[in-house]
Design a protein that fits this description.
Blueprint (H helix, E strand, L loop, with lengths): L1 E7 L3 H6 L5 E4 L7 E7 L18 E13 L5 H4 L8 E15 L6 E5 L12 H12 L6
Parallel strand pairs: 1-3
Antiparallel strand pairs: 1-6, 2-5, 3-4, 4-5
């Protein structure tokens, strides 16, 4: 199955993967709504390098559902784990589907990532995510 992926620097990737960060911020927006693979970049956030010891780098960690992408507001600061900044867009996630981590060579922007079916740990997901994944596995679904 091919899904869109987004590379995020550590420690933010682990926060998304454990559900404590439900908004990612970017200076650009996307029209995509649906499942999104979260990948940890090989290089961590240089300002927070002391926090990333032992955290996975260069690996796909989870699938989440991107439900909105809009200008960031002050109310987004807590779920995004960062302060509002000029030009920020809030990528709003709902739900979380852990996967068995596997190595990925990340890229900028959204990119295609092949996810093997056996990578999924828990086959019980929301009906919304399940519908996307059914199309992906059974009908050759492509996200773009």
């Amino acid at each position: 199955m091919i899904l869109p992926a987004l590379s995020v620097k550590q420690p933010w990737t682990t926060m998304i993967a454990n559900g404590s960060k439900t908004i990612e911020t970017r200076t650009w927006c996307t029209q995509w709504r649906g499942p999104l693979v979260i990948v940890s970049s090989k290089k961590p956030d240089f300002e927070l390098e002391d926090m990333v010891t032992g955290l996975p780098l260069g690996q796909a960690l989870c699938v989440t559902l991107l439900v909105n992408c809009r200008p960031m507001t002050k109310d987004d600061e807590q779920p995004a784990r960062c302060e509002l900044y000029r030009g920020a867009h809030a990528w709003v996630f709902r739900g979380l589907w852990p996967i068995v981590p596997f190595a990925v060579k990340g890229r900028r922007g959204l990119y295609d990532l092949i996810i093997p079916r056996h990578a999924f740990i828990d086959e019980t997901v929301s009906e919304e995510v399940a519908a996307y994944l059914d199309r992906a596995w059974n009908k050759g679904f492509r996200w773009r």
